[in-house]
Design a protein that fits this description.
Number of helices: 6
Largest sheet: 8 strands, mixed
Strand content: 35-45%
Low-confidence stretches: 1-34, 313-344
Helix content: 25-40%
Shape: extended
Structural class: alpha+beta
Radius of gyration: 40 Å
Number of strands: 26
Distance between the termini: 136 Å
Mean pLDDT: 78
């Protein structure tokens, strides 16, 4: 009887304990159920999904997926970069309603305690240790070299002392010299490689210290965003946070490649990405925009301009102390579709399909004054302004018309010029271009840009197989006029163009004649062996300036001494009593 009572009491105590613990856990775990006006808080682990890069700015979108129940939720995004522009914060969710987005900045007591700073400090310590090791190795090599040199001095001394006697051991001496030569070569190689290693380490140290200094200046505060969401149902919700950051930019660069036989021209349109925003971009969907979000969207107002009679004063006194007078739409771009290679039998075809998809040209979007290029391949860009990453926008062939251009009065080279047509749907922006013929690098050239279907010129350097030689055949002064009161300065010129390419070529030949700025001096072109160009742009702009241009078809020539000869005469006529400004000697 007593035992039954004890068992009953124990069971009752256990039941009361379970009820108390369950009530306590429920009250601690679901405070929002007690007060629906107090939001539950949750820290989201978000990744950077996409970046739209402008000139000097970048629009970044972070995404996180979380499971929420009905009610109010305060979702926090931590570790926002110091370069963020808080006014541009915007959030979107796949369910519920966004009530507010708040920016929160908190002071950090010790910048060196941040994880990024600790990693950089460890890297700097490691580099310094490696530099110290290389210095010790160089010092050891120098000491070892001194030992070898001392052995060489002693061997030479012994050989001199024993020279011409039976004590001189030529075989031993030769062995010593061979050993010393090998040791010197080995020590020199070690010193060379160690010196190169030390130089690389010093460069790495400068870069790491630069990143650490930049981090130290930014790590005095931490930035967060809090998104207040009202949920009416339960479920899994994707939440995207978008904002603008500074210290990020891109610039267009081009590689223009001609085949060795110049049958085709290929253009590689790349973007050079530089960013120091404070956050690394890993595997992001990158879009490059020509818009400038930092500029005003509307033009400034024109103010009135008034004119009146200026008042007059006897005296004017001036006191020495007188005073002297963007929201960004949330990005909707999804991550590139990733192919899961689970089927071993279809792995090869899926890998090929993925490679083809990720190597596609950028997708051109936008309208009006701006254009956006969306890159197919996921893109990585660390936050380091010393690192420049290339992103391929497009590559395509450009229809080209070739012509040679020469101005032997200024240069002895005959340069190949290609007139290319932008046959792509891309607006080619102004930038710089590297020019190649086959595997040979010709040089760099500014590129002014081209719209779709627009033509533009590119020079591919001088062709040694084509030459142009200019000669002053004769120059003399002679009297003119009925009674010899005039004076003519007569100059006969010729240019010999040789074509050693083995095929007919087109050549634009440029030269000049004097241009008179007074009616008392007359300049005439005579004895011209070929007509001047009839190109409308040339006739309108260059011919009045005295520039001479011939458009010539040059057949192949058997040797450099032969070629097409273009000749002409320049006559400068004036009165004898008029002294002209100096004429060119040639």
């Amino acid at each position: 009887m007593i035992g039954d009572r004890r068992i009953t009491a124990r069971l009752l105590a256990l039941a009361l304990t379970f009820v108390a613990l369950h009530s306590s856990a429920y009250s601690q775990g679901t405070p929002a159920s007690l007060d629906p006006n107090v939001p539950e808080e949750r820290l989201l682990k978000a990744k950077i999904e996409s970046v739209v890069l402008y000139q000097g700015r970048a629009a970044v979108t972070r995404v996180a997926t979380t499971t929420l129940t009905a009610g109010l939720w305060k979702l926090r995004f931590d570790d926002l970069p110091a370069s963020i522009q808080p006014d541009t914060l915007e959030a979107k969710s796949g369910a519920g309603r966004i009530l507010s987005v708040d920016f929160i900045q908190r002071a950090v007591s010790d910048a060196a305690s941040t994880p990024d700073a600790a990693v950089l400090d460890a890297e700097i310590r490691k580099i310094n240790q490696e530099i110290a090791t290389t210095v010790d190795l160089l010092t050891g090599s120098q000491n070892e070299l001194k030992v070898v040199e001392s052995v060489g001095v002693r061997a030479a001394s012994d050989a001199t002392k024993d020279g011409g006697t039976a004590k001189l051991d030529l075989v031993s001496l030769d062995g010593q010299l061979t050993w010393m030569t090998a040791q010197r070569a080995r020590i020199s190689e070690v010193a060379r490689t160690t010196t190169e290693r030390a130089e690389f380490l010093r460069k790495d140290l400068v870069a790491a210290q630069s990143r650490r200094n930049a981090l130290g200046s930014r790590a005095n505060s931490s930035q967060s965003a809090e998104v207040l969401v009202a949920m009416t149902t339960d479920g899994e919700v994707p939440v995207r946070l978008s904002y603008l950051v500074t210290d990020a930019r891109w610039e267009p660069v081009y590689s223009i490649r001609a085949t060795p036989d110049r049958d085709s021209i290929g253009i590689e349109f790349d973007a050079l990405v530089i960013q120091n925003s404070g956050e690394d971009w890993k595997g992001v969907r990158l879009s490059l925009s020509t818009a400038r979000p930092s500029r005003a969207a509307s033009p400034p107002t024109v103010t009135p301009w008034f004119v009146d009679i200026r008042p007059t004063f006897d005296r004017v006194t001036v006191s020495e102390n007188a005073p002297v007078a963007l929201s960004v739409n949330a990005l909707k771009a999804d991550q590139p579709e990733r192919l899961e290679l689970k089927d071993a039998s279809g792995m090869l075809s899926k890998r090929k399909s993925a490679a083809e998809k990720l190597s596609e040209d950028a997708v051109v979007g936008g309208s009006g004054p701006s254009v956006t290029y969306t890159i197919a391949l996921p893109f990585d860009a660390p936050s380091d302004d010393q690192v420049r990453r290339r992103a391929r926008i497009a590559s395509f062939d450009a229809p080209t018309k070739f012509v040679f251009q020469t101005q032997p009065i200024a240069s002895d080279g005959v340069f190949l010029r290609g007139t290319l047509t932008n046959a792509s749907p891309f607006q080619l922006l102004p930038g710089r271009a590297s020019v190649f013929v086959g595997a040979d690098y010709v040089g760099a050239t500014p590129f002014l840009g081209a719209a779709p279907t627009q033509e533009f010129a590119v020079f591919f350097g001088a062709d040694p197989a084509v030459t142009a030689r200019r000669e002053l055949v004769k120059k003399e002064d002679r009297q003119s006029g009925l009674f010899g009161g005039g004076l003519d300065s007569v100059s006969d010129y010729r240019v010999i163009i040789s074509n050693g390419t083995g095929r007919p070529i087109d050549v634009e030949l440029f030269d000049r004649r004097p241009v008179s700025r007074t009616d008392k001096i007359e300049v005439n072109l005579s004895n011209n062996s070929a007509p001047l160009s009839k190109n409308s742009d040339y006739v309108a702009s260059q011919l009045p300036q005295g520039i001479l241009r011939w458009d010539l078809a040059i057949p192949p020539t058997p040797s450099g001494d032969d070629g097409r000869v273009i000749s002409w005469t320049i006559v400068v006529s004036r009165s004898k009593d008029i002294e002209t400004t100096p004429l060119p000697p040639q």
